[in-house]
Design brief:
Layout: E1 4-6, E2 12-13, E3 49-51
Antiparallel strand pairs: 1-2, 1-3
Length: 52
């Protein structure tokens, strides 16, 4: 699964890890992350992420 990096702060979303503290379980591919999810580091939206 592809990783995605926040263009604002550099946080990397790794599907193998997910973001369980914010409701995204491990194993969740980027396409299944809710559109309302935001970067846990800076609050940027999904549209501010690029495929790594």
């Amino acid at each position: 699964m592809d990783k995605y990096v926040c263009d604002v702060c550099g946080y990397v979303y790794d599907p193998a890890v997910g973001d369980p503290d914010n409701g995204v379980p491990a194993g969740t591919p980027w396409e299944k992350v809710p559109d309302t999810w935001t970067c846990p580091e800076c609050g940027a939206g999904k549209d501010q992420f690029s495929k790594q």
